[in-house]
Predict the structure.
Amino acid sequence: MTGNGGRPSWHEARAIAAAAGSAPAAGSAPAAGSALAPESVPLHAAIGRRLAADLVTPIDLPHFASAAMDGWLVAGDGPWTLVDHSPGRGQASPIVTGALVPADAFAVLRSESGEVAGGTLRSTVAGEPRPGHHIRRPGTEALRGERLIGAGTPLNPAHVALAAATGADELLVAAVPSVALVLTGDEVVTSGVPAPGRVRDSFAVQLPALIGMLGGRVAGTARVPDRLDDTVAALRDADAALIVTTGGTGTSSADHLRDALRTLGARLLVDGVAMRPGGPTRIAELPDGRLVAALPGNPLAAMVSAITLVEPLLAGLAGRPPEPVRTVRGATAEGRAGSTVLVPYTEIDGRAQVAAWRGAAMMRGLAGASGILVVPPEGVRDGEDAESVPVPWRVVA
Ligand SMILES: Nc1nc2c(c(=O)[nH]1)N[C@H]1C(S)=C(S)[C@@H](COP(=O)(O)OP(=O)(O)OC[C@H]3O[C@@H](n4cnc5c(N)ncnc54)[C@H](O)[C@@H]3O)O[C@H]1N2
Ligand code: MOO
């Protein structure tokens, strides 16, 4: 569905964004950050990254037979004569958890299940040890050649511990696209309480973290005055696969983003979106292949665009599908003809209640939100399913 004014719908814009990131222009030179080949990183650095190639274990897991308890390695039925070498039939020798045992070892008797008197060990628990008791056999977790983690898996600490057990020192992970921020606005101040007519910067304090949560890495931030030549220079000099700009998307004498893109010969892939807020969002490709996501200056509009449109761009650049849109049970939300309305919501009693603070410059609604509700032009009726994009953050401390 194409939105009003010839602008793509929000769904179409997401699809264009995902494809833009994954298909660099034919013949374009790779930009600094857009050589998005997978990279090999040490294990600890792989947590939170996506595995780029299947992890196949080159060894059995575990790869040798070992004692699972402290006690004695025993051979045959007891009682056993204690020895200080590998026991033969009728003999036992002390052993600690994890120690290597012969592949054909009979059993381990736990220290609390045996008693030594005069150099002879006896079991004090009827039925212990059974044959094979307390011995970890090789290959019980995985056999050599088994695929343990599939390509594309986001790696958690347990994955990385598993990789270490296979003997890996590094893992091949998908690239994290580099992002350059270009923030516009003469009226923006970066500390303290702004005077009337000035606004406190909403972006530099959180966009690097947000971009990180969306799958990118901010390599640098430039602030530019509301001038065409400065905007052109900032875009020209930004050294990253993706440039994210804020503000200046309008048509007033203080807005230069579109002219700057034109001056640089950019190809506009998305020239505004039939969405609210965030309608003025642009996605463009510079002649050298770098991508630009131009977000409106209004803070909520910019963040809604970042979460729902920059994320697919980053996903495409990293060679993964965008985060899927979810379904939630909605509470009544009004739509808008010809547009998708994107509104922060919180889940109350299993229903997505839209936030009261949804003005394009308001942060209060998004700050407490579980996600962004995707309200179609016809609106959402109470109890009806609706699409949603979860917020990408989770606060743990
Ligand atoms: N005649 C029209 N005017 C506007 C339209 C329109 O269609 N016709 N669209 C409105 C919409 S929707 C939006 S969104 C904004 C887009 O504005 P720009 O992208 O050009 O952004 P600015 O004009 O630079 O700023 C808009 C607003 O945001 C504040 N801002 C900017 N940067 C920051 C920052 N770093 N931190 C906090 N706040 C920021 C700025 O002070 C303005 O209040 O245009 C509407 N106008
Ligand atoms: O993107 Mo604007 O903030 O729709 O209002």
Notes: The radius of gyration is 30 Å. Confidence is low (pLDDT under 50) at residues 25-35. Helices lie at 10-22, 157-165, 207-213, 228-237, 257-263, 299-318, 364-367. The pocket of molybdate ion (ligand 2) is lined by residues 276-280, 296, 298, 301, 360 (CB under 6 Å).
